[in-house]
Amino acid sequence: MRHIISILLENEPGALSRIVGLFSQRNFNIETLNVAPTEDATLSRLTVTTVGEDKVIEQITKHLNKLIDVVKLVDLTEGSHIERELMLVKVKALGAQRDEIKRTADIFRAQIVDITPSLYTIQITGDTGKLDAFLAAMQPVGVLEVARTGVSGIARGEKVLSL
Amino acid sequence: MELLSGADMIARALHDEGVEYIYGYPGGAALHIYDALFRQDKVQHILVRHEQAATHAADGYARASGKPGVVLVTSGPGATNAVTGIATAYMDSIPMVVLCGQVASHLIGEDAFQETDIVGVTRPIVKHSFSIRHPSEIPGVIKKAFYLAGSGRPGPVVIDIPKDMTAPTERYEYSYPKKVRMRSYSPVTRGHSGQIKKAVELMLKARRPLFFTGGGVVSGRACEALTDLVRRLGFPITTSLMGIGAYPQGDRQCLGWPGMHGSYESNNAMHHTDLIICIGARFDDRVTNNTSKFCPTAKIIHVDIDPSSVSKTVRADVPIVGPADAVINEMISLVQGRELANPEALAAWWTQIDGWRAEREGKLYEPAAPGEPLKPQQVVEAVHRVTRGEAFVATDVGQHQMFAAQYYKFELPNRWITSGGLGTMGFGFPAAMGIKMSYPDDEVVLFTGEGSFQMMMQEFSTCKQYGVGVKIINLNNQSLGMVRQWQDLNYKSRHSHSYMQSLPDFVQLAGAYGFRAIKVHTVEELEPALEEVFRNKDELVFLDVYVDPREHVYPMQVPLGSMRDMLLTKTERT
Ligand SMILES: Cc1ncc(C[n+]2csc(CCOP(=O)(O)OP(=O)(O)O)c2C)c(N)n1
Ligand SMILES: [Mg+2]
């Protein structure tokens, strides 16, 4: 099963490499990874998505928790949560296709954020499935470049991941 | 407040931390620190002859004393030479603090002379690491490093120290912190009471219970409590290779150790038990054999201070995360005044175990008759007799290590010192050195093989410099015996590169450093030679014992089998 694990990490040099290293060292898999500072300058928030059986996920969270730089951790998929990813994509946009692409983008609530005579740059947010579907829809016109942030997430309701 | 340079802070902080010995080797990036060591007399620096030896010596010291071992090396090759020793300590959860010199901050990343990203290199084999970014951080980082190394599940901690952080011209206020608090690290101090109750109920109801304990009981200083609990319940106990000595091995309740070369009774008991009470052991692959056939009828209680050890290789029915001593003591208070539900089942269990014991009694190996080449097993037994089972015993890795573990019976913890997890040839000699320096009045014996010994034999020189009187028993089978054994069993005796064609004359080799050495071939020569070896506690003596090169270590578990599937001799199997 796919899990989304969010981590509050000491904002120390080398901390990120310990996380990434752990995954390769123990043969755990990383689907996506994103990391950025939080409102507290001493902490970063890191989100990984990974796929594995329960036993493997249990080992992943235990080993992550063991890293000295990991302050707190939550497996968001254990409860209801909100999951988002942002994607920027450049597609070929010529002649009649320009309108068609615009219509499709609207259906997906994506925005065209830059244009040239021959291409569009489109921004779209959503869960991984929605982004994948949009990419599939753009495939016939020609996808030139894709930049995805990887999944970020947060628990629904009163639950807060903080110190 | 006092103003000190970074280098002086290091020397001072080590003293304030109570460090007696630091094992190291100098070089450019560490020279300010070496100068600071020169100008003080509180912490004694031991100059080894290879940085790997520094880590193993610190490791041996740590295993014997329970206190973190301390290492100081220079950047680049000094630091990379230490890597094997750091990995060895990591695999066996040994507390160690390794101070590494580094090129000056402004040179980092430029492929400067002797620059290695040692924090990167050691990342997967340390509990944690630090890079010093300002000299004023030094006291705090050293305090944290010792705290991390020694608490929770112990392990090595590396501190990377760029040369400019130790410059004598820059001075800062020094004070050594009394306490550490880290928001991201707080090892558990006790186990979950509900889980412990559940465990005790299972224990009282069990029909064929078995304690299986490991290095966590030794490092957690829980051996007395364990012995108390095991005796109260009257259950059998088997200790992992790392846990040898936690419970007196001469005692009737002790079945030896389990696993690949574990005792017949231990492995059979493991296979047939209905309840494993595992404390501070981690069910590694050398113990469990094929996990899918492991202990088919057993429920498993697993106590460990490290949650990631629990249910890693085998599923625990009652997981308990907590320190061994606290959990065992809580168990003791719960069993007090309680009776076993099935005392007759336990009695029958013992009858079964005694039956296994009797099956193999006197059949473990055939001692050499006079004139025949000695058997390594009988040499270990002879050393055990002469030292009354009281010595600190360090080993290298190979057949001799297994024979030492099988035939030297330990009554006390912290005396069996071996590289269990990594299996590092070359570990033994420097480790023995580290032990002897801290316990000069005790007998320290090294069981080694001619292969392993040659990996660290330069340490003769260190022993000469510091007058380190370890007793070296070289079980010389003129081959990489353990490799040869596998080749005999799995490769139709094609001895590919397991034969030592050009052994040195070890007597002359030891003699070159001024040490006495004795060569022995037969039973008749052995006893008088051992007497000479152990005559003077302070003298290093090298005993070169020629043993039968064809000998194999048995029992040996059959690959992919269950615990009880074993080869018993070259011709018998279960
Ligand atoms: C550093 C290192 N290299 C290789 C090995 C693989 N290995 C395990 S036992 C062994 C043979 C050891 O020979 P020796 O020290 O003579 O001991 P013996 O088995 O003959 O008693 C080897 C090569 C190892 N454990 N460590
Ligand atoms: Mg050998």
Automatic annotation (TrEMBL), chain A:
Pathway: Amino-acid biosynthesis; L-isoleucine biosynthesis; L-isoleucine from 2-oxobutanoate: step 1/4; Amino-acid biosynthesis; L-valine biosynthesis; L-valine from pyruvate: step 1/4. Gene3D superfamilies: 3.30.70.260, ACT-like. Chain A, domain 2. It is an enzyme of class 2 (transferase). CDD domains: ACT_AHAS (cd04878). InterPro entries: Acetalactate_synth_ssu, Acetolactate_synth/TF_NikR_C, Acetolactate_synth_ssu_C, ACT-like_dom_sf, ACT_dom, AHAS_ACT, AHAS_small-like_ACT. GO terms for biological process: isoleucine biosynthetic process; L-valine biosynthetic process. It holds the Pfam family ACT_AHAS_ss. It catalyses: 2 pyruvate + H(+) = (2S)-2-acetolactate + CO2. Residues 4-78 form the ACT domain. One of its GO terms (cellular component) is cytosol. Keywords: Amino-acid biosynthesis, Branched-chain amino acid biosynthesis, Transferase. Its EC number is 2.2.1.6. Belongs to the acetolactate synthase small subunit family. Catalyzes the conversion of 2 pyruvate molecules into acetolactate in the first common step of the biosynthetic pathway of the branched-amino acids such as leucine, isoleucine, and valine. This is Acetolactate synthase small subunit. It comes from Cobetia crustatorum. The gene is ilvN.
TrEMBL record, chain B:
It catalyses: 2 pyruvate + H(+) = (2S)-2-acetolactate + CO2. Binds 1 thiamine pyrophosphate per subunit. Residues 196-330 form the Thiamine pyrophosphate enzyme central domain. InterPro entries: Acetolactate_synth_lsu (IPR012846), AHAS_TPP (IPR039368), DHS-like_NAD/FAD-binding_dom (IPR029035), THDP-binding (IPR029061), Thiamin_PyroP_enz_cen_dom (IPR012000), Thiamin_PyroP_enz_TPP-bd_dom (IPR012001), TPP_enz (IPR045229), TPP_enzyme_TPP-bd (IPR011766). One of its GO terms (cellular component) is acetolactate synthase complex. Keywords: Amino-acid biosynthesis, Branched-chain amino acid biosynthesis, FAD, Flavoprotein, Magnesium, Metal-binding, Thiamine pyrophosphate, Transferase. Signal peptide: none annotated. Residues 396-545 form the Thiamine pyrophosphate enzyme TPP-binding domain. One of its GO terms (molecular function) is acetolactate synthase activity. Residues 5-119 form the Thiamine pyrophosphate enzyme N-terminal TPP-binding domain. Pathway: Amino-acid biosynthesis; L-isoleucine biosynthesis; L-isoleucine from 2-oxobutanoate: step 1/4; Amino-acid biosynthesis; L-valine biosynthesis; L-valine from pyruvate: step 1/4. The keyword Magnesium applies. It comes from the Bacteria. SUPFAM superfamilies: DHS-like NAD/FAD-binding domain, Thiamin diphosphate-binding fold (THDP-binding). It is an enzyme of class 2 (transferase). One of its GO terms (biological process) is L-valine biosynthetic process. Its EC number is 2.2.1.6. Its cofactor is thiamine diphosphate; Mg(2+). NCBIfam families: acolac_lg, PRK06466.1. PANTHER family: ACETOLACTATE SYNTHASE CATALYTIC SUBUNIT, MITOCHONDRIAL, THIAMINE PYROPHOSPHATE ENZYMES. Belongs to the TPP enzyme family. This is Acetolactate synthase. It comes from Cobetia crustatorum.
